[in-house]
Design a protein that fits this description.
single chain, about 90 residues, alpha+beta, Trna Endonuclease, Chain: A, domain 1, five-stranded mixed β-sheet, 2 helices, 5 strands, about 30% helix
């Protein structure tokens, strides 16, 4: 399985977790190079989610870049770190 295939599989696991929480989820389009993998719309807020497999892949500069993106109120930016055989570790970027 290629790295891209593993990443896609993990994005779908995150999507499934968000669906279980009651969100409507948009998965990024193939070939997208945008800052987010998933957009989860809840009745009272939106989550913009980046799925990662390596905790060291998320630099402080990257977090600052994400936090400075314009977004409406009640929209949260999250990094979901994949952990084998465990729930995702979720970090909300303020």
């Amino acid at each position: 399985m290629s790295i891209k295939d593993r990443g896609t599989k993990r994005e779908y696991k995150a999507r499934d977790a968000l669906l279980e929480m009651g969100a409507s989820v948009v998965v990024r389009s193939a070939g997208s190079h945008g800052p987010f993998d998933l957009v989860a719309v809840f009745s009272d807020h939106v989550r913009l989610v980046q799925v990662k497999s390596d905790k060291y892949a998320v630099s402080l500069e990257y977090k600052i870049t994400l936090s400075n993106l314009p977004r409406p109120d009640d929209t949260y930016i999250e990094i979901w770190l994949y952990q084998p055989r465990k729930p995702f570790l979720i970090e909300r970027i303020e």
